[in-house]
Design brief:
Layout lengths: L1 E10 L5 E11 L5 E5 L6 H8 L7 E6 L2 E2 L5 H11 E4 L11 H11 L6 H10 L15 H14 L4 E5 L7 H16 L3 E5 L3 H4 L4 E6 L2 E6 L4 H10 L5
Parallel strand pairs: 3-8, 3-9, 6-7, 7-8
Antiparallel strand pairs: 1-2, 1-4, 4-5, 9-10
Helix pairs in contact: 3-4, 3-5, 4-5
The structure holds adenosine-5'-triphosphate.
């Protein structure tokens, strides 16, 4: 997945405009676990939404498997996303009336296919929820619901996995576990892109992107959390 000079401007009802992304470019390579960090409001989620096709960039392009998404019809774009991209966003989008297992199996049903039982079971095992597979979302904690959403996203073995704060509702140990799983999914060949506020966890990624005010200020190998904080504060790369 590649973003090329992506900009995004939001229009307010009073006619004013907010420039949220300013010509952002980067590539998330297959096999890499890329983490996006930045202060609150720096444009991380907006970037992820543009990559996920949920927001249309004001200008710039996003490429999936080398295909420019702007050049596809909405239907072809939706199909490309369903086939290639998995998402975990902040509101986990679980269906209340379905069990954890059924929620994880949902993408198969939406695709008109019978769920592959072994894959659904394996995905729930990866996130440590095999024993709670029959529970409804309302019978799970927030962190467990988040992990069901992760299991659902990884179940279809997407080539690109986009996750927004996947560990936001988790304790440190479980968060580390989830990060390790994301890293493993990348090591198995997917391009995994994760937005997080966890700067220490970011040190374990393959690549880090540091954003501020809609710009990418650093992209490269992981750097210590203290250096990232310095970039947030100074607005420039400290090395
Ligand atoms: N639909 C919208 N209309 C207007 N402004 C928006 C909209 N969505 C986001 N913004 C603004 O864009 C800026 C970036 O938001 P975004 O959610 O991308 O930031 P973020 O870095 O993910 O922040 P956080 O870490 O707090 O989740 C914010 O100032 C936000 O208020």
């Amino acid at each position: 997945m590649r973003a090329s000079t992506v900009s995004k401007e939001f229009a307010a009802p009073d006619g004013s405009h907010t420039q949220v992304l300013n010509g952002v470019s980067f590539e998330a390579a297959a096999g890499d676990f890329t983490v996006i960090v930045g202060p609150s409001g720096s444009g991380k989620s907006t970037l992820l939404h543009c990559l996920a096709g949920l927001e249309r960039p004001t200008s710039g392009e996003a490429f999936l498997d080398g295909v420019n998404l702007n050049e596809l019809t909405p239907r072809a774009r939706a199909r490309a996303y369903r086939k290639i991209v998995g998402f975990v966003f902040q509101n986990y989008n679980l269906i209340d009336s379905l069990s954890a297992w059924e929620n994880v199996a949902l993408p198969f049903r939406l695709d008109g296919r019978r769920p592959e039982v072994s894959r659904v079971d394996a995905a729930l095992t990866v996130v440590g929820l095999a024993s709670k597979r029959k529970r409804l979302p309302s019978q799970l904690s927030g962190g467990e619901q988040q992990r069901v959403a992760i299991a659902r996203a990884i179940c279809s073995e997407p080539a690109v996995l986009l996750t927004d704060e996947p560990t936001g509702a988790l304790d440190d140990v479980t968060a580390q576990f989830v990060f390790d799983q994301l890293k493993r999914i990348a090591a198995n060949g997917a391009a995994v892109v994760t937005v997080t506020h966890d700067l220490v966890a970011a040190e374990r990624a393959d690549r880090v992107i540091v954003m501020r005010s809609g710009h990418i200020l650093y992209t490269g190998l992981p750097i210590p959390a203290t250096e990232i904080t310095a970039i947030f504060a100074a607005g420039e790369v400290s090395r």
